[in-house]
Specification:
5 helices; alpha+beta; tt1808, chain A; Type I restriction enzyme R protein N-terminal domain-containing protein; 211 residues; two-stranded antiparallel ribbon
Length: 211
């Protein structure tokens, strides 16, 4: 079974005994965004047809938005696109995008991931969250610190963006959905997630230093 074999989030909750909750946990943190990025995104939205191509949504909307925020954190992280991820035969597949610790050995080396992004194909957010949560569980198991580390996830169809975090067996989904038409607020939400990933990275380094 691969990540996208899960039909809905309930299947993952039940299989891995995860408790689902909701809260307003995102603290929108504004960030300066290049005008060139905004102009390029506006061009894509104006000129491309997204209704017939799910790949176009990933390539022209989701990835550029993640990449724009990532530019400010590239010293600490690597943004992976469609990188294979395997824990066992049930938890395996190819997440759309991953944010992982930057390896001192080079950009070719995959280190511990902290954040995963999934496209809601055919606008099916329930299945999208089934896939995303299973990927978050795999990351949690690969990183081997479920009680100490928080894993973040987002599901998006390009227009709507939903966020969640997983720590131990508690999944917390952000009660607010963010929309592309309110770009500054969306980017501020994603920036907050990157900041939290930085803190998780600092905690990881601290835990390693005292062991």
């Amino acid at each position: 079974m691969s990540f996208d074999s899960y039909k809905n989030i309930g299947e993952v909750l039940k299989e891995y005994n995860i408790i689902s909750s909701e809260a307003n946990f995102i603290i929108e943190t504004p960030i300066n965004i290049r005008e060139a990025f905004k102009e390029d995104l506006e061009f894509s939205l104006r000129e491309f047809n997204f209704e017939d191509s799910e790949y176009a949504i990933c390539e022209a909307v989701i990835f550029p938005i993640l990449k724009e925020i990532y530019r400010n954190y590239r010293e600490d992280f690597t943004l992976w696109s469609h990188k294979s991820l395997t824990y066992d035969e049930k938890l395996s597949g190819v997440p759309d995008y991953l944010i992982a610790k930057k390896s001192p050995l080079g950009k070719e080396v995959f280190e511990k991931p902290f954040f995963v992004a999934v496209e809601a194909k055919r606008d099916d957010f329930n299945k999208g969250w089934g896939q995303c949560l299973s990927e978050m569980v795999a990351i949690q198991k690969i990183n081997q610190q479920p009680d100490k580390q928080t894993i973040y996830g987002v599901v998006s169809n390009g227009q709507f963006w939903q966020f969640a975090k997983l720590k131990a067996n508690l999944l917390t989904r952000e009660v607010n959905s963010y929309i592309l038409s309110n770009l500054d607020t969306l980017l501020a939400a994603i920036n907050y997630i990157f900041i939290q990933c930085e803190r998780e990275l600092e905690m990881l380094a601290f835990n390693i230093s005292i062991t």
